[in-house]
């Protein structure tokens, strides 16, 4: 089949998210005037090595946050955020934090998640996450659409859980990353294999 997005797809549900998958999940923690916040975003990725930089997009809004969501509103206040990596074992806690809870709700408390302080920024992080990236906002970009915002951040600090290192390598098989598919579906990474890039 072929369809133009502006004309509709004619399917029971939009296939776009299912096509662009699997996607890593950025479990974004922020701190603001209303307190601490934690929410997952699947439009998330690393975008540069030197200096290390990441991005995530917020694509909907809450009525109590002036055209955006809690994470974006709070990092606009402070200029910082933390990306926490989601392991399969924390899938249910992550799902609890995905709700559109009222501004001021501390999702760490709501989902019974252990909180720790970041080292380079004034922001909470998930203490037991396989890894956490402390980030300073470099830019926020508005995309076409009603509530589409992308934030870019430069990584100023990296936390790695000791049990996720094998022979000096960050080993995803030690914690099994949770990934986002389309619809209400997720997947988990349990197997990896190498491909050696050809020399030319």
TrEMBL record:
Domain Flavin reductase like: 20-177
Entries under SUPFAM superfamilies matching the protein: FMN-binding split barrel
GO function term, MF aspect, one: oxidoreductase activity, acting on the CH-NH group of donors, NAD or NADP as acceptor
Protein name listed in UniProt: NADH-FMN oxidoreductase RutF, flavin reductase (DIM6/NTAB) family
Pfam family, one: Flavin_Reduct
Xref: InterPro entries: Flavin_Rdtase-like_dom (IPR002563), Split_barrel_FMN-bd (IPR012349)
Species this protein is from: Jannaschia helgolandensis
């Amino acid at each position: 089949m072929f369809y133009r997005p502006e004309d509709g797809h004619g399917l029971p549900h939009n296939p776009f998210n299912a096509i662009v998958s699997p996607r890593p999940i950025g479990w974004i923690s922020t701190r603001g005037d209303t307190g601490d916040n934690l929410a997952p975003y699947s439009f998330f990725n690393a975008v540069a090595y030197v200096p290390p930089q990441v991005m995530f997009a917020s694509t909907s809004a809450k009525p109590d946050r002036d055209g955006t969501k809690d994470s974006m509103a709070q990092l606009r206040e402070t200029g910082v955020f933390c990306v926490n990596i989601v392991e399969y074992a924390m899938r249910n806690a992550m799902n609890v934090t995905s709700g559109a809870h009222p501004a001021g709700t501390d999702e760490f408390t709501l989902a019974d998640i252990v909180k720790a302080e970041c080292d380079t920024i004034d922001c909470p992080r998930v203490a037991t996450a396989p890894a956490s990236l402390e980030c300073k906002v470099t830019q926020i970009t508005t995309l076409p659409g009603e509530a589409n915002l992308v934030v870019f951040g430069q990584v100023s600090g990296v936390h790695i859980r000791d049990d996720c290192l094998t022979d000096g390598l960050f080993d995803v098989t030690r914690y099994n990353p949770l990934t986002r598919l389309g619809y209400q579906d997720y997947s988990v990474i349990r197997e990896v294999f190498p491909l050696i890039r050809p020399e030319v």
